[in-house]
Amino acid sequence: MSEILKIVAVALVTVFAHMLIKQTKPELALLISIAGSVMIIIMVVGTFKNVFGSFYQIFNKTGVKMELLSPLFKILAIGYIAEFGANICVDAGASSVADKILFSAKLIILVVALPIITSVIDMVVSLL
Q: Using the 8-state DSSP alphabet, how is residue 68 labeled?
């Protein structure tokens, strides 16, 4: 609970600073937004450690190949990085570039997911 309060506090300070600076130095306002966003991401990185540990335990218990864990983490990272980059572009007024980032991320995720898709198909076929 206290983590989200810290995150909201950083976000509010970032937004307030952005609004104050935007009128006089718009290029600096974008940098303030990026810096605030990076601070928030750094604050939640520790949470991902728990998520990765949980996935590792699930894979161990279910007998799913550990080689599939890496693509899964890559997919998660691609999604979060693309969303972060796209939001920065939207904040800067370049929504068309944001759309290209998200489209590209979807294609990359599809390519990275192919081993997972193949493995699921193999499991289904072996059950038949």
A: G
